[in-house]
Write a structure and sequence with these properties.
By secondary structure, the chain is of the alpha/beta class. It has helices spanning about 10-25, 25-40, 40-55, 60-75, 135-155, 175-180, 235-250, 290-310, 330-340, 350-360, 385-390, 415-420, 420-445, 445-460; strands at about 80, 90-95, 100-105, 110, 130, 160-170, 190-200, 200-205, 210-220, 260-265, 275-285, 310-320, 375, 395-400. It starts with 11 loop residues before the first helix and ends in a 31-residue tail after the last helix.
């Protein structure tokens, strides 16, 4: 866990002094950037609402990616679509040469979380099953708005270099950014910025949990469960044995390992022996180097389930993502900008909405969370994100802003609800300002980029980036589709 320790050789005090000198020359640029974001604020919010309404699965975000790509093209950015062999991934950039500052955007939604912008559990009435319970409609829109504002200053000759927006699909389990990394799309970046909606403001990257995802699919033989059970071979039995074996395995794994699953298909009727069943696993650990051995043991559990039930096993290995490597050099800048820009204040109606939401929450944080900025740099988070793979190659940092009622967990209907209101909009606008001004700092401060690169090198030490994907693995473009018998890829 040595990467979680702030590296002493990087002097944040000296760094900020240097930035302060540069800022004396960039006040006009900052004001122009902020004015640009304010002038497009309502248009950006309407774009975010359209993405919130579309709420599309990973790798199927056709409407959402088109909305953002079209907005980028209309602003004069050069847009490259379907990058990394992913139909909904794109890049939009402006400028030339170095520094190259990347800004990440996401826009996929989550299943089972359809919700109206109301402070009680009310799924949408259009039978739409998906919801933006992680706020990616805000994430993608704010990041693009910041990119456009910075691009305008490059166009006017106030900044030199390249600003690049990455339209990143399928963050929720699809590992879209890993395939973009493998396609070399980050090779020339000097720094990458990202953010995320949350229930608190925070600056800096927690190290995240590395993760491997896999689906085990079993094919058996159907029969009447009462009159001829001896003729059946239950695929569901194989799933249940796999699940039981993995539960026993938990006791004998390294500390901080997480193994969790859902049964995505288990049959249709009790009196029919299920001929097909599927179980979907995530394995996580703070250090990615532990995951391949853990996965091999999990696979043995599935093979044992197939052997015991005389069923056939097919494995859909969906690959993995690495843990984030924090970068304290960049965090010092982004924290300063987030603190200076934080003006969050809710209307009476928004506070009433929040009070009703809090009645449904276990954790009821006070509204003072709107005005505070937590320092989370070099701590360990419990989630996983494909931003991690980027951070092994490029100095990377991020932050969160309050877009949900304090105390709201991610991946909840409460997050979907708040994300469709002014609460989400205000957090999104704060994020756009923070991203844009941090990018301005980086364009003006080449020494910062040099120190960030040196910090990344120091954190890596002798360890090299190693993807958790298999050689030649392709993006699982249909990973959100319902499981079908015989549709799996052989291991």
């Amino acid at each position: 866990m040595q990467r979680l320790v702030c590296l002493a050789l990087f002097s944040i005090t000296g760094l900020l002094t240097g930035i302060g000198t540069a800022l004396a020359q960039t006040d006009a640029v900052e004001q122009a950037v902020l004015q640009s974001l304010t002038s497009r604020r309502e248009v950006s919010w309407q774009t975010a609402l359209k993405i919130w309404q579309a709420a599309e699965p990973g790798y199927q975000e056709t409407v959402s990616s088109e909305l953002l790509a079209d907005a980028a093209a209309a602003a004069g950015l050069t847009v490259r679509k379907a990058v990394a062999d992913i139909p909904t991934a794109f890049i939009a950039e402006f400028g030339s040469g170095h520094p190259v500052i990347g800004i990440l955007g996401e826009y996929d939604a989550l299943p089972g979380l359809s919700q109206r912008a109301e402070p009680e559990r009310l799924p949408r009435t259009d039978d739409h099953n998906w919801g933006h319970a992680c706020g990616h409609h805000l994430f993608g829109t704010a990041s693009l708005s910041a990119t456009i504002a910075v691009a305008e200053q490059i166009r006017e000759g106030k900044l030199s270099g390249t600003v690049r927006f990455y339209g990143c699909p399928a963050e929720e389990g699809g590992s879209g950014k890993v395939f973009m990394v493998q396609a070399g799309l980050f090779n020339d970046c000097d720094a990458v910025l990202h953010w995320h909606p949350g229930s608190r403001n925070s600056a800096g990257d927690r190290s995240s949990l590395a993760r491997i995802a896999v689906k085990f699919q079993f094919s058996g033989r159907t029969a009447h469960a009462a009159s001829a059970p001896h003729m059946g071979r239950s695929a569901l039995d194989a799933v249940e044995l796999t699940a039981h074996a993995s539960e026993l395995m938990r006791e004998h794994t390294p500390d901080n390992t997480r193994i969790h699953h859902v049964i995505t298909s288990g049959g249709d009727a009790p009196n029919v022996v299920p001929p097909f069943a599927e179980i979907y696993y995530y394995i996580r650990h703070p250090e990615g180097r532990f995951l391949k051995p853990l996965y091999e043991r999990l696979e043995l559990c599935a093979r044992a389930g197939a052997l015991a039930t005389e069923t056939q096993l097919k494995i859909r290995y969906e690959g993995g993502i690495r843990e984030i490597l924090p970068n304290s050099t960049l965090t010092g800048i982004i924290r300063r900008r987030l603190q200076s820009q934080n003006d969050l204040q809710w209307s009476d109606a928004e506070q009433q909405f929040a009070a009703r939401i809090q009645q449904t929450l276990e954790t009821k944080d006070g509204l003072e969370a709107l005005r505070t900025v937590d320092d989370v740099d070099n701590t360990l988070g419990k989630g996983s994100t494909d931003v991690g793979d980027i951070s092994w190659l490029v100095p990377t940092t991020g932050f969160t802003t309050v877009c949900w009622v304090p105390g709201t967990p991610a991946h909840s209907w409460q997050a979907v609800a708040a994300g469709g209101t002014g609460i989400g909009e205000k957090g999104m606008h704060l994020a756009a300002r923070t991203l844009a001004l941090t990018a301005v700092d980086l364009f003006r401060s080449p020494q910062v980029l040099q120190q960030a690169a040196a910090e990344l090198k120091q954190r890596l030490g002798t360890e090299k980036y190693e993807s958790l994907m298999r050689p030649g693995q392709q993006p699982p473009l249909d990973y959100r589709n319902p499981p079908k018998a015989g549709a799996a890829q052989a291991p």
